[in-house]
What does this fold into?
Amino acid sequence: MSASAIPNHLKCPRTLPAQLPSTDFQPPYPSFSVRFPENVSELVLAIIGAQFKPGSEPGAAVGAARSTLTAFLTSSTSPTLPSFFEWASVTDNKGFYNVTALAYWPSRIAYEAWAEQSGFRKWWQALLPEDSPNGWFLEVFFPTTDRFETLFNTDATPEGSAHMGEAMSEAVQEHGYWGSMRDRIPLAQTDGLAGEKAPPGDFTAPAAAAGRVVVPGRKNLAVIRSGQDWLDTTPAERVLYLETMHPVVIKGMDFLRDHGKGVGCHSCRFMEIVDPKTAKAEGIDRTFGLAYFDELASLEKWCKEHPTHLAIFGGFFQYAKKLGNNVTLRVFHEVMVLEPEQQYFEYVGCHPGTGMLAASQ
Ligand code: HEM
It folds into this structure.
């Protein structure tokens, strides 16, 4: 008997049908969702990044930017430090090196208190693009828990928002079929979560980076962080992952990054988790795709129909078969569908293809 991915306190009579194939559907393999305490009704994920021109990594400026952010994220003057944060990096398709903190709080109040009391907000507002050797970006999401879902293929290793959970669920029923992501989002019981379909021209990046740009939020923007962790795989599985799955995931993420506009993807970064001290990815063996879609339906369509995710998906079942279904690769994702006021995007001295800047004109 499986649990529901939607916790009891967020269940309501459906006005929209579930995609679940049948009420007694049993998924072919187990997966789990994070359970948050009932009094947690909202989460925060802040992506606070620094961007460096080609050729600057791993220079002193990278270390200095990370030290600056670390001081705020660990500040002794703030009683509401993030529940969890980690570092990730990516070199983007313009050759810029981006390093970001991904920090989580259990409420907007806690995040705002941190921003104020750590001195982060004051520092951020005073940043002058012309005085800084690098660009900076701040992308903050404030999903209510009814607009949020997670799926993990193991209940033993927390990632991201799971660090704020009180437990993992029992194996959930709503997975293993297309559309299950939507079935796991509590609000989708009664809301189709339609977004703003962006006309193609909407994706044209501004010709030059402006100094400081705030990009407004969009109705029902769909954000996915989809992670892969091969740290604890056996030597044979590691080789298989790196030779057969990893390149296919990169291909899918490159497609969304470079050609996403055709499928409703505003931004995609395929990031490596890096060591907090060295900012190096070696030995960490964890990556994630971070993508922003104009609406959930576009993300669903890319997964279900586009050759790049179908190659990942199909490749995974071959991979599992080769391992006799004894897979130790860990995968997870967290997905949120956000109201405009649940998003904050600000860019200081970044190139025009950065994050939601690319969709801002
Ligand atoms: C090694 C990497 C990946 C593997 C093995 C993988 C495999 C899968 C599998 C097996 C499912 C079905 C899960 C279930 O319902 O039980 C799935 C669904 C999904 N995947 Fe991937 N995937 C990978 C990477 C990604 C990435 C990087 C993204 C996007 C950034 C992504 C987006 C999605 C979404 C949104 C769904 C849910 C679709 C729905 O329920 O309608 N995946 N993937």
